[in-house]
């Protein structure tokens, strides 16, 4: 009898969560004005949350799927957020 | 008499601000535990703030310098944060 173990690799999934276009972002607006008050010139400022998740998975695709599900279920709010996922080997 | 105008290009500078290694991040810890409660397996989770700043500048180097100064003066707190800057043409 042989038991087969799937080889696992450690991946880093980076999930970037942004407010959707058109959703007001008063925090970014405040930061932009504070920078202008300091004398900086800028056209616009958007802020986003970035989560770097380290996980063991069988493949890049499996890590991507899991990070995607994390975003859908907890990290992003689909009503107001867009997100993207990027996976690299850790 | 000629007046010389420097050609300006629009750049997007992405400033990523992270807590330094060793600084406690209770928010990330809470998010990690919430994901685990949902049944996800993960080794670690780090969170970071990401600022996407659109600006007109003479060159990539000038845009980088300005974003760097924004990070030093407002976006990051050098006592607890590390940051990096990435500039692309918008």
Automatic annotation (TrEMBL), chains A, B:
GO cellular component terms given for this protein: cytoplasm
Protein name as it appears in the record: Phosphoribosylformylglycinamidine synthase subunit PurS
This protein's UniProt keywords: ATP-binding, Cytoplasm, Ligase, Nucleotide-binding, Purine biosynthesis
Function in brief: Part of the phosphoribosylformylglycinamidine synthase complex involved in the purines biosynthetic pathway. Catalyzes the ATP-dependent conversion of formylglycinamide ribonucleotide (FGAR) and glutamine to yield formylglycinamidine ribonucleotide (FGAM) and glutamate. The FGAM synthase complex is composed of three subunits. PurQ produces an ammonia molecule by converting glutamine to glutamate. PurL transfers the ammonia molecule to FGAR to form FGAM in an ATP-dependent manner.
Family from the record: Belongs to the PurS family.
Entry's localization field: Cytoplasm
Pathway(s) this gene product operates in, as recorded in its UniProt entry: Purine metabolism; IMP biosynthesis via de novo pathway; 5-amino-1-(5-phospho-D-ribosyl)imidazole from N(2)-formyl-N(1)-(5-phospho-D-ribosyl)glycinamide: step 1/2
Gene Ontology biological-process annotations: 'de novo' IMP biosynthetic process
Matching InterPro entries: PurS, PurS-like_sf
Catalytic activity: N(2)-formyl-N(1)-(5-phospho-beta-D-ribosyl)glycinamide + L-glutamine + ATP + H2O = 2-formamido-N(1)-(5-O-phospho-beta-D-ribosyl)acetamidine + L-glutamate + ADP + phosphate + H(+)
One GO MF term: ATP binding
Major subcellular location class: cytoplasm
Domain of life per record: Archaea
Gene: purS
SUPFAM superfamilies linked: PurS-like
Entries under PANTHER family matching the protein: PHOSPHORIBOSYLFORMYLGLYCINAMIDINE SYNTHASE SUBUNIT PURS (PTHR34696)
Key word Lyase present: no
Pfam families reported for this sequence: PurS
Quaternary context: Part of the FGAM synthase complex composed of 1 PurL, 1 PurQ and 2 PurS subunits.
EC code: 6.3.5.3
């Amino acid at each position: 009898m042989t038991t087969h173990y799937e080889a696992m690799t450690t991946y880093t999934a980076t999930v970037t969560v942004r407010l959707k276009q058109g959703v007001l972002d008063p925090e970014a607006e405040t930061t932009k004005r504070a920078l202008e008050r300091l004398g900086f010139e800028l056209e616009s400022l958007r802020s986003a949350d970035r989560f770097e998740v380290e996980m063991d998975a069988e493949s890049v695709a499996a890590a991507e799927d899991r990070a995607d599900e994390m975003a859908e279920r907890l990290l992003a709010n689909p009503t107001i957020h867009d997100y993207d996922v990027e996976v690299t080997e850790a």
